[in-house]
């Protein structure tokens, strides 16, 4: 429980969390994917439910067990995730995009399995951009005062990249993780800095993903209209 997160401070709120990693299909048996486990998003969903929120968890291909007390919507691709999040966001007080969304998808989908041909090199794989769900949600909020949160995994100049990304996306908060070989993906623990559009910077020390989740909800709750 975060310091400011006592009791059921999210009671009466509807929050939407996306989790996991999208898969972009190539043919009926193949996809382009990423290594996101869904652990951080599921931790966000569980902690919000424990603080009294109604939670919609939009889960992209996570193998984690279904958390109790949340509405789970399973999706595959980035476009499916956008549709599910947009629908759930219509009456939401907050949306947290913890999912790893593929930036690109195959330009075409083959209805039948792609076969190799004897003695021939493969065709290069053509990709197209996926929609930026977080930027779209931030620009077109269905409710005034809806709080929108993004996640970013960065290497090198982590804070500078984070600040630039926060501004580019137009969200209220951006949780910035430093990633490396064994950091973050699939790990139980996390270390992050939460950047606010108001210029604030909240360091979250290395610890369980639940602790980061509690801090995120503390910062979200403070931004609800009429709070402090
Ligand atoms: N995101 C999204 N839609 C996309 C890509 C990303 O909603 N098509 C969201 C992610 O869920 C995350 C945030 O945007 O909350 C940042 O994702 P990230 O991949 O770091 O941002 P990008 O703008 O894709 O930047 P990069 O080129 O560094 O991957
Ligand atoms: Ca990306």
Tally of DSSP β-strands: 12
C-alpha end-to-end distance: 20 Å
The proportion of strand residues reads: 25-35%
Q: What is the string of SSEs from the N terminus onward?
A: EEEHEEHEEEHEHEEEH
Tell me the radius of gyration.
18 Å
What is the helix tally? 5
Shape: globular
Cross-sheet strand order for the largest sheet = 5-4-1-6-9-10-11-12
- Major β-sheet profile: 8 strands, mixed
Task: Explain what you see.
- It contains five helices and twelve strands.
- The longest helix has 15 residues, at 209-223.
- Helices cover 25% and strands 29% of the residues.
- By secondary structure, the protein is of the alpha/beta class.
- It has helices at residues 39-50, 78-89, 133-139, 158-169, 209-223; strands at 14-20, 24-27, 30-32, 54-60, 71-75, 94-97, 104-106, 127-129, 147-154, 173-178, 189-196, 201-208.
- The strands form three sheets. The protein has an eight-stranded mixed beta sheet with strand order 5-4-1-6-9-10-11-12, sandwiched between helices.
- Helix 1 (39-50) packs across helix 5 (209-223).
- The site of cytidine-5'-triphosphate has 14 residues, from helix 3 and strand 9.
- Cytidine-5'-triphosphate (CTP) binds next to helix 3 and strand 9.
- One of its GO terms (biological process) is pantothenate catabolic process.
- In the C-terminal section; belongs to the PPC synthetase family.
- Residues 10-221 form the DNA/pantothenate metabolism flavoprotein C-terminal domain.
- CTP binds at residues 103, 113, 131-134, 151, 165, 169.
- Pathway: Cofactor biosynthesis; coenzyme A biosynthesis; CoA from (R)-pantothenate: step 2/5; Cofactor biosynthesis; coenzyme A biosynthesis; CoA from (R)-pantothenate: step 3/5.
């Amino acid at each position: 429980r975060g310091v400011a997160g006592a009791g059921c401070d999210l009671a009466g709120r509807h929050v939407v969390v996306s989790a996991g990693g999208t898969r972009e299909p190539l043919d009926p048996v193949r996809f382009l994917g990423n290594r996101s486990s869904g652990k951080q998003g599921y931790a966000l969903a569980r902690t919000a439910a424990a603080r009294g929120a109604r939670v919609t968890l939009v889960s992209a291909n996570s193998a984690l067990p279904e958390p109790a007390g949340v509405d789970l919507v399973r999706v595959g691709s980035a476009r499916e995730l956008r549709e599910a999040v947009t629908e759930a966001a219509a009456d939401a007080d907050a949306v947290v995009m913890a999912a790893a969304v593929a930036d690109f998808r195959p330009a075409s989908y083959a209805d039948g399995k792609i076969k190799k041909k004897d003695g021939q090199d493969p065709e290069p794989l053509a990709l197209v951009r996926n929609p930026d769900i977080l930027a779209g949600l931030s620009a077109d909020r269905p409710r005034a005062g809806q709080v929108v949160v993004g996640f970013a995994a960065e290497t090198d100049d982590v804070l500078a990249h984070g600040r630039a990304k926060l501004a580019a996306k137009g969200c209220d908060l951006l949780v910035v993780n430093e990633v490396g070989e064994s950091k973050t993906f699939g790990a139980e623990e996390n270390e992050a800095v939460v950047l606010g559009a108001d210029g604030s910077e909240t360091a979250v020390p290395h610890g369980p993903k639940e602790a980061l989740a509690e801090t995120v909800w503390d910062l979200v709750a403070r931004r609800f209209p009429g709070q402090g």
